[in-house]
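User: For my dataset I need records formatted as: sequence, then structure tokens, nothing else. Please produce one.
Assistant:
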Amino acid sequence: MKKNDIQFLAYYLPQFHPIPENDAWWGKGFTEWTNVKKAKPLFKDHKQPIIPGELGYYDLLKQPNIQEEQAKLAREYGVDGFIYYQYWFDTDKMLLEKPAEAMLANKNIDIPFCFCWANETWKGIWHGLDNPEVLIEQQYRGVKGYQAYFNYLLPFFKDKRYILVDNKPMFHIYRIEDIPDFKAFTDTFNSLAEQAGFNGVYFIATVVSQSFNVLDNACVYGQVGLDVFFKMRYQKPSFFKSGSLLNKVENKLKTKFGASYKIGVRKKPLIFDYAKGVAEFNIKSPHNKYIPCVFPNWDNSPRSGKKSLIFKNATPKAWQKHLEVTVNEAKNNVDNPKFIVIKSWNEWAEGNYLEPDKNYGLEWLEVVKRVKSNIIETEL
């Protein structure tokens, strides 16, 4: 891999416009900004709420020029493409699809893109509630359902901005092992892609467990290194580890009162020091399909409150170190996919964003530009 072959792709969240479902679940006019605005500091020197910078509290549908501005800003500062989260629940049910559809229709949004199918059931607990009620369930309808999904995606795949690898549309899958008939899914997509003139689909896994071996699946070309963050997010206190007294008590209570009974759930944020924490990430690629994932910041307390995961002391200086370490590792892995995934462009309620804010302005983005410039200069 040449060092300047590395491309930076950033996850893109479309939840910046009201939809009837969110109105019903969370109140009229709910968007990602709702939680961002009402966030409160949970400890001394906790910087909340975070206030957006020059793009403001935008609405992706009421302000159609915003996506043009985002694309221009991203390209100017070294972000090579967006990975739009996509919420396809069933053959007749999608959510938050309008921004991507607007992007497809507006050729002035000048940035490469692809999709990440966020194939996950939505629950109330997502936004800090104790109620795990299912809001909308992820369904898998077999070959006919997959055909319908592919047919919806095909106009995007054919768009000249869509990211292709070896003439294969790049398609990320959030929870790849949740697909019950995975082979039928990939066979359907690959067959239809070939009929449309592609060489198949470039599937990339995101969150996987040990039960799903990426290396054993020839049709999966990459795995985004996002797992470590999710393992950290759901940590329980050390006194509640498997086999402990509290763990045994909980298991007995579950037997008596039901599987949903829990004790030992965190009542305060899980806090890590950013500079110390990221030093352990991406220092060694575990296999040749690994795609490193980086994040400039992380504080999902606007969404999760006291159950949040917070990386304190996240600064542009520490972010640059994190990105440089990752690039240095990636450039040595010549057989790996030539991408680094950034979480994220605009997940404000998760505290993952590159967009300008009031605290640091453009500094998050300036780091990306600086690191990319260094990659190119050292190659010359």
